Amino acid sequence: MIKGSIVALVTPMxxxxxxxxxxxDQLLEWHIEEGTDGIVAVGTTGESPTLSMxxxxxxxxxxxxxxxxxxxxxxxxxxxxTREAIELTQAAKESGADACLLVTPxxxxxxxxxxxxxxxxxxxxxxxxxxxxxxxxxxxxxMLPDTIxxxxxxxxxxxxxxxTGNITRGKEVIELCQTDDFQVYxxxxxxxxxxxxxxxxxxxxxxxxxVPKIMHDLCRYAIAGNKGKAGPLDDSLAILxxxxxxxxxxxxxxxxxxxxxxxxxGIRLPLTPMDEIYHxxxxxxxxxxxxx
Length: 292
Prior knowledge:
By secondary structure, the protein is of the alpha/beta class. The chain is built from 13 helices and 8 strands.
C-alpha cells in the first residue's frame, strides 16, 4: 500500500522553460532525505498540461531511475483524450513507475457513464496500479462517489485522490469505497489532516514541496489517528497553505522553492511568475515559519 506524504512534485525549469534535470535530481534526493513517502511526477503541480507527451514520459522515466526503488513513484498520466492517457500510462509502466495518477478528463466534461468508460478503458489496456484523481475545481468534471465505487471494483484501480476539499464528500467516499485494496488520499492540503483522521491513507500534497518533513510527520500522525500530535503541525501550516494558492498552482510553490534556493525561475506559459504584489507577504510567511 502506498501511504503517507506523497509530494505532487514541481518540474524544475530553466529561465527559458527547458526542463532542468540536474535540479530535479537534487529535489528528489532532498525529498528522500526529508522522509517524503512517495513522488508524483508530472501531475498538475508538475505542469503536465504544458509538457509534451514525450517530455512527460521522459521526466517519469528519469524520476524512476533516480529514485531507484527507494520510495514509490506515481506517474501523472491523465489526459482528456482516452487514447493519449493510455499511451502515457503504457509509457509509465515501461519506465517502471509503481502506479499512475489519472485526472478526470478536463474541459470536455464527460458524463459519469463516460468517466466509467474512460477509466475502464485505461485500466484494461495497461496492467499497472492506477489512482483516480477528482479535482472538479480545475477540470469542470466531478466524479461522484458512486462512480468511484464502481471503478474501485476494477483490480488495478487502487485508489482515488479526492481533491474537492469537502470533508463531507471525502467521508462519504471513504465509507463507500475504501477497502484493503482501494485507498482514499487527500488532494487538498488545508483539509488533509481532517480527511486522514477519518481514514484516508495519505495526502498527495503541494505543501510537501516546501516542507517535506513536516508533511511526512503530519501524515504519519494523522493516519495513526493521533490528532494531538497532528493538530499542532496542521495549525503551523495554515498560513503557508493559504500562500501556496495565492495564484494558480504551481505558480506560488515554484516561487517559494526559488526563494529557498531549490529551483530556478522557470515556468511555462500560459503560467507566469508570481505577481510582485504577493512577494513581501509570502516571503514574510516563509521567514516566520523558519523556511528561509
